[in-house]
Amino acid sequence: MKEQNPNLKLLSISIICAALTGVIWELTQNDPSSSIIYLIWFVVLYVICAIVANIIIAVEKAKVKSWNLLALIFCTPIPYLILYKLAN
């Protein structure tokens, strides 16, 4: 049964990454003139999230099952690009 539950550390990293992405996105909407600096922050955020997620997987030997894969996908910009395309 434990394998069906998501890894809580991966889930928390993806939630933190999603929240920070939302904050950075809101900042770019409020001040478009400095959006290049926020683009750098997006890249730094996703690199840090990817490194932390890989460390968690390596240390805990977490199996990448459906829930963990979903958490990993939310550590990347893929869902936000899809939402952006759907919104426009």
- Provide the low-confidence segments as ranges: none
Radius of gyration based on Cα positions: 14 Å
What is the makeup of the main sheet? none
- SSE arrangement, N to C: HHHH
Shape: elongated
The multimeric state of the shown protein is: single chain
Structural class based on helices, strands and sheet pairing: mainly alpha
Terminal CA distance reads 41 Å
- Percentage of residues in DSSP E strands: under 5%
Into which percent range does the helicity of residues fall?
Answer: over 70%
In total, the number of strands is: 0
Number of H/I helices: 4
The average pLDDT score comes to: 76
Count of the domains: 1
Describe what this molecule looks like in 3D:
- The mean pLDDT is 76.
- With 88 residues, this protein is mainly alpha-helical.
- It is built from 4 helices and no strands.
- The radius of gyration is 14 Å and the shape is elongated.
What labels describe this entry?
88 residues, mainly alpha, 4 helices, elongated
Task: Explain briefly what this protein structure is.
The chain has 88 residues and is mainly α.
